[in-house]
């Protein structure tokens, strides 16, 4: 067991010894009050993550973003703003990556469909030009 006097010494805040020649009565008395600015809680991007999960869940990035958004909201409710900010920024990054990949995928699909349509139209026109009008086939 730890003696009571030793436990009390540990609970006291650290202090500095006054230099020789100074008296406490001669020092000015002042009180310092620290006022923290009230910070806005970080955004959790939950709605964005939900939309990414439902409409563009490429490589499951939307689901991961949703998980981090929920974790961010939990941290915010508990008052851990630094943890909430960390999870929030991860969810935001995942949402941005998913959005960029979805845009690239849509652009590639549109280009491929345009090329396939163009090729099939070209083949159809070619077959119409080179068909035999007497037999009705492409010989």
TrEMBL record:
Naturally occurring in which organism (per UniProt): Sapayoa aenigma
Alphabetical keyword list: Membrane, Transmembrane, Transmembrane helix
Protein name: IFM3 protein
GO cellular component terms, semicolon-separated: plasma membrane
Classification lineage: Eukaryota, Metazoa, Chordata, Craniata, Vertebrata
Subcellular location: Membrane
Coiled coil: none
Transmembrane segments: 46-68, 96-119
Family of the protein in this entry: Belongs to the CD225/Dispanin family.
Domain of life: Eukaryota
Tagged with keyword Membrane: yes
């Amino acid at each position: 067991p730890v003696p009571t006097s030793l436990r009390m010494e540990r609970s006291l805040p650290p202090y500095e010894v006054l230099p020789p020649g100074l008296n406490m009565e001669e020092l000015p008395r002042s009180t310092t009050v620290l006022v923290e600015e009230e910070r806005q809680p970080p955004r959790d991007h939950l709605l964005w993550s939900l939309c990414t999960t439902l409409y563009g869940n490429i490589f499951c990035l939307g689901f991961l973003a949703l998980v981090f958004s929920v974790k961010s909201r939990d941290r915010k409710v508990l008052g851990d703003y630094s943890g909430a900010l960390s999870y929030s920024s991860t969810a935001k990054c995942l949402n941005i990556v998913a959005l960029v990949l979805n845009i690239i995928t849509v652009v590639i699909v549109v280009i491929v469909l345009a090329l396939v349509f163009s090729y099939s139209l070209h083949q159809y026109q070619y077959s119409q030009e080179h068909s035999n009008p007497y037999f009705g086939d492409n010989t």
